[in-house]
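Problem 12. The chain below contains 117 residues. Write out its predicted structure in token notation.
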Amino acid sequence: MRRDVFQAIADPTRREIINLIAHQSLNLNAIAESFDVSRPAISKHIKILTECGLVVINQQGRERYCEANLKSLGEVSDWIEQYRAFWTSKLDALESFLNRDAAASGKTKSTKKTKRK
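Solution.
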């Protein structure tokens, strides 16, 4: 099964693993200690992250250290950017419409004269 970065970040545990190792390399035990799930479950999450290219495992003596490779998140950023651009243009158009409508309403109100007694 081919996994992609979107599958990797879909799970909150995997997102938290990425967050943990984004700042420093950690060994598998240190990562597992941060969660209330079994060590094999964490190993499975790390395997998925490795398959997606978000984690690189380096062997140092008997320890295996996980290091974040966040370049793959560029794919997510690119995908999100197309929707950000779409919604920004739509919201800008709505703002312009509302401003024109408010200006037109302001002119209508200011041209009406009220009688004073």
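Discussion. The chain has a mean pLDDT of 87. Students who got a different answer should revisit the alignment rule from Section 12.3.
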